[in-house]
């Protein structure tokens, strides 16, 4: 369905974005929620979306795997591509798209199934395993990558919902990983977690960034500074500024960004 593309174009010596948004506008009925957003997202990088409540961070994030399709009043204009292919094209299979562009939500949401079946569900419906041995391997690997294997290996049949909040969130990350995504979207993945569980998820994000493009919505500027390489600052539906995280936090170019990061509003 999609053509594969190199991460790096040796002719132009430029990195090819994994995903690219161009002129994206989103409306909920008459509410023009985000305005003309253009942003490139790269593999091997964590991009943090920051900004005050209601500025459109989650709306933009949800456009990247068409989660907004589920909101009846929502209209998306502009273009968003994955490896150069328009994800809003009519030929696109949205279930496949959401496997390639996985999502982790604010509140851990394991299925009411065993730990094993939480992970095995996606690979089963996407036909990624031919037999139980393959499936066992996928489950083990996903739990290892999510840093959860040692904590759950002796109780794979226990319900996912019986894990602690932090473990549940890592289970949800393992579930996203199990279907071989290329991009992982995270919508405030630590906001329901305590500081220790947050630190584990942040370490995990850092380990995962070498394999995926990760885009994370966070209310915490400290978290954005700790875990992201790129930061995009949204305000009232505008993408005000985007660039290297260090630069955004130490020498922002726009006054609105400066005011936000210095705590003048937000
Ligand atoms: N499902 C929805 N239906 C109608 N309007 C919505 C919906 N989701 C978001 N909006 C509106 O879109 C605008 C942007 O909201 P969004 O949730 O994207 O902001 P946000 O920056 O992620 O906020 P927060 O940090 O509080 O989660 C707001 O005006 C909000 O009321």
Automatic annotation (TrEMBL):
GO terms for molecular function: ATP binding. PROSITE patterns: ABC_TRANSPORTER_1, ABC_TRANSPORTER_2. Keywords: ATP-binding, Nucleotide-binding, Phosphate transport, Transport. SUPFAM superfamilies: P-loop containing nucleoside triphosphate hydrolases (SSF52540). It comes from the Bacteria. Residues 19-261 form the ABC transporter domain. Gene3D superfamilies: P-loop containing nucleotide triphosphate hydrolases. NCBIfam families: 3a0107s01c2 (TIGR00972). This is Phosphate ABC transporter ATP-binding protein PstB. It comes from Kordiimonas pumila. The lineage of its organism: Bacteria, Pseudomonadati, Pseudomonadota, Alphaproteobacteria, Kordiimonadales. The gene is pstB.
